[in-house]
């Protein structure tokens, strides 16, 4: 190996057996920042002009090949050379260029690899074009070169879903040419040496395989429908399906589309979400604090919520012991959990070996003392203070003093539950969302006396469960339900002021919520919220505005979809507007002397979004939420707020209609 030459601060190279091995070292993820592009360009020029260089290998330092373009540069003035220009130089080089994928090759990283003349990957690497998740399309050839390599249908799937594939799948699809064990760079060097002086396989010169246009049209229509108004997936469909045209034409179109989307509000929102997710794991007071080790999790209460948590925990590799009141009830819980695992098996999310292993790690009991060896215990019993306090007192006596106790309460005060135990410092809240094995959000509740390493344990276990943990302080409903209450209250004010449920729902769905608020109520059932309102009636501020419409619906037996009627009617299960509901609403308005007025969709949205953001302000001022981004993540991952709008705090920065 020759001496190392630095082509820039982040790109260096050394010659090995006549091949220039170029290494990108731009921590943390080797993003193609301006300095990397500069260094690469210079290294390529050196390779082209040096008579003692026969080929090039491009690889990354650390565990990533290239994580993509540098997202932090988006929105700043462009710096030459552009990534597409550098990538074109790779493809055009007269000497063989081999990509040695030492780790993830994502976005611009995969685009670099696609332009190389050969791709060898380590077995641990993943490849993908996740740009649509950032509201953009691949902007450095991905939409044009990937179909040339793997065909339009497979490229459509990968680019419009943004999913990454592991090395094996990348090989079978034809994205990479070889999986290399051991000295990856050494193998890449010998491949480059073998290709020297031979005709090179340039991806851009390949022809896109011909496919049945009706098949493509069917797939495209499905993708567009799923995108719910987002621009990037639709643009990606257009670019990929038209990739059979001359490369230069496709690349020009792709670049213009990329730039247009990159500067859009939608992309700014999704970038905000990306960085907010990374920020959320930085929690005040936890620097340098190690979580307690967790291998065995106890779950108390094996209803829907407890079973969902159990499935998530089994999937993460934990041993799970479920506790319920009697052996019979516990056995029912066991059946429910196994039923969920069977569904995963049937859908292909789990293979037989995985199913068997997970089932073998599950046991149930009706004896508290069987939880003695658990490291973390999560309760998901009925949301009643006395029930939870009784359970925590019992557990406190039988579990190890260093075991962590978590409550899944939605509305109760976890400080009161903690205070009932001998070790309140080991108590925290882990508020899962239903169905717990599907929903990504977990609110991690830092109680008044939660020890830092207990909080760290909750965060690390939630992450291992592949959840997005967001820390919240103690308040009624925590971050999500407090914002949701403010949103619901405003929606009910709107009803009294003149809007109808279907008008509010239409505005929300057009904005990007998967379902309007009143349709969601009907689906969930109206009785639980009604019971809560009745409990709170005595302590309600009599001077505060209170909308009785929901109570009137419940009194009339309209409990939602299950009872065939709620905010809508459901003859034959299909949701329709019910004039009876309109009459109830009109009567409520008349009772208060409210003269209804018309609300446009924009006005409806503005009021609802502002109500959410104002509650968010209060949560920040009270120190319940640490950052606006945390609030946005809670609403996106727990309440259906469209991620491409960035969450209620981000959405407020500009009015909802200002999309560019
Ligand atoms: C693109 O490529 C466009 C092109 O088609 C066209 C261009 C013309 N840029 O996730 P982690 C930071 S668009 C800047 O915790 P992991 C991240 O903020 C891009 N920074 O690590 C964090 O910073 P901090 C397409 C980035 O090991 C730190 O790195 N690519 C970027 O769990 C660690 O991140 C993608 O969308 C970036 N591209 O996972 C891939 N990526 O420490 C996005 C990360 O200050 N990235 N950072 O909080 C990922 O999926 C993961 O980061 C990755 C590593 C799998 C790479």
Q: How many E strands?
A: 19
Widest sheet, order of strands: 14-13-12-15-16-17-18-19
Mean pLDDT: 95
The CATH superfamily of the largest domain appears as 2-enoyl-CoA Hydratase, Chain A, domain 1
| Fraction of helical residues | 40-55%
Structural class: alpha/beta
Cα radius of gyration in angstroms: 28 Å
Low-confidence stretches: 656-660
Give the percentage of residues in beta strands.
5-15%
Number of domains: 3
Kindly report the CATH topology of the largest domain: 2-enoyl-CoA Hydratase, Chain A, domain 1
Bound molecules: (S)-3-Hydroxyhexanoyl-CoA
CATH class of the largest domain: Alpha Beta
Distance between the termini: 52 Å
Largest sheet: 8 strands, mixed
Q: Which shape, going by the Cα principal axes?
A: globular
Supply the CATH architecture of the largest domain.
Alpha-Beta Complex
List the total number of helices: 26
